[in-house]
Specification:
This protein is of the alpha/beta class and 266 residues long. 24% of the residues lie in helices and 29% in strands.
Length: 266
């Protein structure tokens, strides 16, 4: 399937109510309906229903209950894919799971691979093993979650027969303000080294543990150039259009992928 000429995405950078699913879903629903133009993909932050919490036994829910049903409903009503991560329980384990809800009612997912040990996430959640690629209008899309940003081997793009594994990679995050400089540096680095568009969607505000978040959400092109021109540290919804022809032209003119080292991810 060939890529559509453009892919339009919306990033929702928001504060979150601490461990209050009802309030967060109501608030985010309002923000989604404030998007007046048609978009293909709406991206929400990490653990958007609760904030970034290790209280998994209190906050987790199985697949296809409240959060999944809300996402499928919003996708069906808007005609957009809705994505973001939530605390999901499955077979006695907890996952920081990115959910990908389509307008046709399908739910795909990616479980966070790199768990943030400094917050003891690795003691609460199980690590994901899969590296899914989602397809949207012919665009190959690679989902990642927060701390994954620090591990370039796992996110490295590869080419088979001259075709990239993915065209667009995005990170949903609860990335603390104290480490904003790393966020700002690594997002464009991932775009440059993988010859792809990259988006990062981070929250703002202060959570129930007293941790501050500065947002700095945005989209970078394959040269590492930031496409965002708005304020970085406030609640906002921003819309971007990714251009297939520009991406493919750059890949052809600057085929650095031909000189990449071969490797396998275990």
């Amino acid at each position: 399937m060939s890529k559509s000429p453009q892919l339009k995405i919306a990033l929702i950078q928001s504060d979150l109510y601490w461990k209050d699913k009802t309030a967060n879903l109501a608030m985010l629903e309002e923000k989604i309906w404030e998007i007046k133009e048609s978009v293909d993909l709406i991206i929400l932050p990490e653990m958007f229903p609760t904030g970034f919490s290790m209280d998994a036994s209190e906050l987790a829910e199985p697949m296809n209950l409240g959060i999944c049903k809300w996402m499928k409903q919003m996708a069906a009503q808007t005609g957009s894919v809705i994505t973001g991560s939530a605390i999901i329980t499955e077979k006695g384990n907890y996952f920081n799971r990115l959910l990908w809800a389509t307008p046709l009612g399908q739910i795909l997912h990616y479980d966070k691979r790199h768990l943030f040990r400094m917050a003891k996430e690795d003691e609460t959640f199980s690590s994901g093993k899969e590296r899914p690629i989602f397809n949207l209008k012919g665009w190959k899309i690679f989902p990642q979650i927060c701390y994954d940003l620090r591990f370039p081997v796992f996110s490295r793009n590869t080419w088979e027969g001259g075709e990239a594994t993915y065209d667009f990679m995005f990170f949903v995050a609860s990335w603390p303000a104290v480490r904003t400089s790393a966020w700002d540096a690594l997002l464009p680095a991932r775009a440059i080294e993988n010859l792809c568009y990259v988006a990062g969607v981070n929250r703002v505000g202060k959570d129930g543990n007293g941790i501050d978040y500065l947002g700095h959400s945005g989209v970078f092109d394959f040269k590492g150039i930031e496409l965002s021109q708005t304020e970085k540290e406030v609640e906002k919804t921003e819309i971007f259009q990714l251009e297939a022809a520009v991406l493919e032209s750059y890949r052809q003119k600057f085929p650095a992928w031909r000189d990449a080292d071969a490797f396998k991810i275990r």
